[in-house]
TrEMBL record:
Highest taxon in the source lineage: Bacteria
Source organism phylogeny: Bacteria, Bacillati, Actinomycetota, Actinomycetes, Kitasatosporales
Magnesium among keywords: no
PANTHER family: BIFUNCTIONAL CHITINASE/LYSOZYME-RELATED, GH18 DOMAIN-CONTAINING PROTEIN-RELATED
SMART domains registered for this protein in UniProt: ChtBD3
Protein name as annotated: Chitinase
Domain GH18, chain residue ranges per copy: 40-330
Classification via Gene3D superfamilies: Carbohydrate-binding module superfamily 5/12, Glycosidases
Cleaved signal peptide residues: 1-33
InterPro entries: CBM5/12, CBM_sf_5/12, GH, GH18_Chitinase, Glyco_hydro18_cat, TAT_signal
Keywords: Hydrolase, Signal
């Protein structure tokens, strides 16, 4: 089986004695009526081992729903599960309970996920680890009642796909939980997250669903991991998502011949991996790909959009390999979340929006020469719009220009930074701002100048929010300025001869 999500942290687990929990726990559990998830929901994975607050990250990103990864046993053979397999993080309100209540209070929810690459490759996925179906069902029920949630996710990959006994136990336990929920008037959904080919589930993934049908276990969502194909081909990841999901749709027709076309599409889930996946650059899911997948998912009426993982939705490591905390591509923080978030509740067309990036994002020049960078724009939601481009931050001795200064989102401009011999040696941040009807976005270029004959200013740089009084000096754009009276927010060089700032000359 090919390696998937190979860069996830390997979680250490403390060996502890655990008490067995029987099926009696099912009949005794609280059966509150948790709020069902929307018919169409965006729920990116949240890496629960990082120590971050899921409620805080949900608020920052705009993702109302999260898939919480992962729940597993601490040791192979155990029937007790913990967050991340960490025996110090039992399934209890003290662990993530307050965060989950906060998310639910905002109208969202979480989907706890069992399994994942680490558990599935070490025998600590609960159905692989525990041979007692009743205790597996009790573990599922405890998560449902502890956090008052309405969906469980089963992430089954690598070795767990070949464990036929574990597959059978898992589906039998799911059936027990579903019967318990029905008897108590509670709706509980189950999603299966499975690896895929570009044309649908492979034989082992399909066998998981076939076994669910045989055991009478209802599968509400079949969620495809549309990444890590490892087939040594160069991929258009958006197109491959569509063919993979269409293949699954056809397979669901064989498994559930009584379902309508709309009902089968409503069983489909898609989980992308933003940026560079574990295979490498040949499998790169771009911001433009995300827009294509979003529009297609809305048109088909699929159930779930997700990606691995929320902590990766930033451009902190452009040009790098797959990582747990960045996408490996140039992007704005939360670009992918902002594209997918309107999917929740199903019919919202995203407002027009765009991104701005600079490639390369840095460069070094000898004073007297020039550097260039390509400023790229992309449609991140809705339709293309006109984007006006401006540049700021160039110090004395550096002239910054853009050609053209206006593009249609998706187009590019060239940033030219021309220096004179009198430029001051140092490193500067040049900002390129794109402005459109939806707002503005900024990309930065770091320019290093060497060999300049100019002198470095010694006064502190002017700050827009600082308060200055009579006689205080600042440096700004290669000049030293002195305040004539109290001021704040007035940029030196813009207030005229009789303004608050006196120009003391170049520095």
């Amino acid at each position: 089986m090919r390696s998937m999500r190979s860069l996830r942290a390997v979680l250490t687990a403390t060996v502890t004695a655990v008490a067995a929990v029987g099926l009696a726990a099912l009949s005794g559990g609280t059966a509150q009526a948790a709020t069902p998830l929307p018919a169409h929901v965006f729920a990116p994975y949240f890496e629960a081992w990082t120590g971050e607050s899921p409620a805080a990250l949900a608020a920052q990103s705009g993702a109302k729903h999260l898939t919480m990864a992962f729940i597993q046993a601490a040791t192979k053979g155990s029937c007790t599960v913990y967050w991340n397999g960490d025996s110090g993080m039992p399934i209890a309100a003290a662990n993530f309970g307050a965060d989950i209540k906060t998310i639910q209070g905002r109208g969202g929810d979480v989907i706890p996920s069992f399994g994942g690459y680490t558990a599935d490759s070490t025998g600590t996925e609960i159905a692989d680890s525990c041979t007692d179906v009743n205790q597996i069902a009790a573990a599922y029920e405890k998560v449902i009642t502890t956090y008052d949630i309405s969906r469980l996710d089963m992430d089954v990959e690598v070795d767990s796909l070949d464990n036929t006994a574990g597959i059978d136990r898992r589906n039998k336990a799911i059936k027990l939980v579903q019967d318990w929920a029905a008897a108590n008037g509670r709706k509980v959904e189950v999603s299966y997250t499975l690896p895929t080919t570009t044309s649908g589930l492979g034989a082992t993934g399909l066998a998981v669903l076939q076994n669910a049908v045989a055991n009478g276990a209802r599968v509400d969502v079949a969620n495809l991991m549309t990444f890590d194909y490892y087939d040594n081909a160069t991929h258009n990841m958006a197109n491959d998502t569509q063919t993979a999901a269409t293949g699954l749709y056809n397979q669901l027709g064989q498994l559930y011949p009584g379902k309508t076309s709309a009902q089968r599409w409503a069983m489909v889930g898609i989980t992308e991996m933003p940026g560079v996946d574990d295979f490498g650059p040949a499998e790169t899911f771009t911001v433009a790909n995300a827009t294509q997948v979003y529009n297609w998912a809305v048109s088909k009426g699929i159930n779930t959009l997700s990606f691995w993982a929320l902590q990766r939705d930033n451009g902190g490591c452009p040009g790098g390999a797959a990582a747990d905390n960045c996408s490996g591509i140039q992007q704005n923080t939360w670009d992918f979340t902002h594209i997918f978030a309107p999917f929740t509740s199903g019919t919202t067309t995203p407002a027009n929006d765009f991104s701005v990036t600079a490639t390369p994002a840095s460069g070094s020049v000898v004073a007297g020469s020039s550097a260039t960078s390509t400023v790229k724009t992309a449609v991140t939601a809705g339709q293309a719009q006109t984007v006006g481009l401006t540049v700021s931050g160039a110090p004395a001795g550096v002239t910054a220009s853009l050609s053209p200064t206006s593009v249609t989102a998706g187009g590019s401009s060239t940033l030219t930074l021309a220096t004179t011999a009198a430029a001051v040696s140092g490193t500067y941040t040049i900002s390129v701002t794109g402005s459109g009807t939806s707002g503005s976005h900024t990309a930065t270029y770091t320019l290093t100048v060497t060999g300049g004959t100019g002198h470095q200013c010694t006064a502190a740089a002017w700050a827009t929010g600082a308060v200055y009084t009579n006689g205080m000096q600042v440096s700004h754009k290669g000049h030293t300025w002195k305040a004539k009276w109290w001021t704040t927010g007035e940029e030196p060089g813009t207030t005229g001869e009789w303004g608050v700032w006196q120009d003391l000359g170049a520095c």
